[in-house]
Write a structure and sequence with these properties.
This protein has two domains: 248 residues; 137 residues, no CATH class. It has 15 helices and no strands.
């Protein structure tokens, strides 16, 4: 029994240490970003004209301040100030964060018709902060430390959290609505990725606030404070932080990511082209040198090295195919692939390849040409025929 108790205690200590490590890491990342951004901001321009830059920095600052109150050792701040002061700062800081986020989104991509709503939101924030401040000073500052995530232990704590989380959820829904309306109008790929990342992050944040509201209901129905639900809500916060961190990465990082993702798409296109290439080679063995069969790493380092020879081979093969069919004379229209028996003569094979290529009009853009011939190759993959047999070529 003593051994089991020791094992349980040690496992609990390890879990606490891991949780504390994650909390400290997130807090350090947040403050590092705040300090780096503060160094890079042109304060003269930010204070006079470019207010969005200043507001974004304030969002990061208040978010970093709010994270301090979530640390397990935040009670040290309470010792030198007032009971639950660290929790109060966290609640208010996150209120400011979500309100500033809505304001920045509106300033950047919102509609002028929504200006009165932003003013009302700030008025509602002021009223909410005053009400929460009154509840804190009158009641919560006299109570033992309460948890940000656990069920309320008193009526005043329940009212405090319900007002706080409800405001955040409503503001978050308004922010999501702004971003959803804007996303289809954005043409820049980098900005679309940024907006989509922020949108997903705020959707997760909305789920986070909704879970906390459910936990607040545990004051009346204790079963709502499920440990699994609470842990899920806690796990969502790092996801929100990571997504917003990604959203504010430098453009050069986004460009590298986009370039690599395109190279992966080109890899799959190259694999699809192999069917058309093999069918061309079976028709015309002297068509030219094949583009090689690189592995994934070799290909993504230099996709053009393999795609250009592949397209040249296909274009040469198409020209030879047209010449071959023209020499035969009056050839009937290309039949459907299922009308050609497998393993038939050279003409049947040529007709089937011609059928796949008949609607391909090579565009001027090289990668658009790759996609066009990729679709033709996929049509050949659907065919019941597998190309000419050796004796047919002979």
């Amino acid at each position: 029994m003593l051994s089991n108790h020791s094992n349980f205690t040690s496992e609990k200590m390890v879990a606490m240490m891991m949780n504390m490590t994650v909390q400290i890491a997130l807090c350090l990342i947040a403050w590092t970003i705040v300090l780096i951004r503060a160094k890079n901001i042109h304060w003269h321009e930010a204070l006079k004209g470019n207010r969005i830059t200043l507001k974004v920095w304030l969002i990061m600052l208040f978010f970093a301040i709010g994270l301090i109150g979530l640390l397990d050792f935040a009670f040290i701040l309470d010792i030198y100030t007032f009971n639950n002061f660290s929790r109060f700062v966290t609640h208010i800081s996150f209120l400011v964060v979500i309100t500033l986020s809505v304001t920045v989104a509106h300033d950047a991509v919102g509609r002028p018709a929504d200006n009165p709503l932003i003013i009302r939101l700030w008025l509602l924030l002021i009223i909410t902060v005053l009400v929460l401040g009154f509840i804190y000073v009158t009641f919560l500052s006299q109570m033992p430390q309460f948890s940000y995530y656990k069920a309320p232990q008193s009526f005043h704590e329940m009212i405090f959290k319900l007002i706080d989380y409800s405001f955040k959820l409503i503001a978050d829904i308004f922010l999501i609505k702004i971003l959803i309306k804007y996303l289809p109008t954005e043409t820049s790929l980098i900005m679309r990725i940024r907006v989509l990342t922020i949108l997903i992050g705020n959707f997760i944040a909305g789920v986070h606030w909704a879970i906390l509201i459910i936990v607040v209901g545990a004051y009346f129905w204790p079963d709502l404070a499920s440990p699994m639900l609470i842990n899920f809500g806690i796990a969502l916060l790092p996801c929100v932080i990571i997504l917003h961190f990604i959203a504010f990465l430098n453009n050069n990082i986004y460009l590298k990511f986009i370039l690599f993702s395109k190279r992966i798409q080109h890899w799959y296109a190259f694999q699809d082209l192999q069917c058309l290439i093999e069918r061309m080679k079976s028709l015309f063995p002297v068509i030219g040198l094949p583009p090689g069969k690189p592995n994934f790493i070799q290909f993504v380092r230099d996709p053009e090295r393999y795609l250009y020879p592949a397209i040249i081979l296909i274009l040469d093969g198409r020209a030879m195919l047209e010449d071959f069919l023209a020499e035969i004379g009056d050839v009937p229209p290309p039949p459907q692939p299922w009308e050609i028996a497998e393993g038939t003569d050279l003409v049947g094979e040529a007709l089937e390849v011609q059928w796949a290529l008949q609607f391909v009009q090579p565009p001027d853009d090289f990668y658009a040409m790759v996609e066009a011939y990729r679709r033709a190759s996929r049509e050949l993959l659907k065919s019941p025929r597998k190309g000419l047999r050796t004796q047919d070529v002979g």
